[in-house]
Amino acid sequence: MNATGYFYYFLLLLAATGALTLRIDVKEYDRQGLNKEKKLARLLAWGNLILGASLFTADWAFQKWFW
Question: Cβ(18)–Cβ(52) under 8 Å?
């Protein structure tokens, strides 16, 4: 799964954007009373975090058992 050297940078980017979105954007949308934007930002942020964790786990499993 780790075909290029940039895969782990991609995983770090997914995790960082998810965490920062949860930390900054969701709080700001809540402060401004923008509920729809807050829900969408929360959904996308958790999607980034889950995708990053899933890809990391899949890469680890692939390297451990199939490589």
Answer: yes
**Is this model's pTM higher than 0.90 or not?**
no
Q: Give dist(CA 46, CA 55) in Å, integer.
A: 14
How far apart (Å, rounded) are the C-alpha atoms in residues 45 and 41? Answer: 6
What totals of helices (H) and strands (E) does the chain contain, helices first?
3, 0
Each domain of the chain, given as residue ranges in start order, spans 7-65
1-54 pLDDT per residue, tens: 555 678 999 999 999 999 999 999 999 999 999 999 999 999 999 999 999 999
Contact (Cβ atoms closer than 8 angstroms) between residue 22 and residue 45: yes
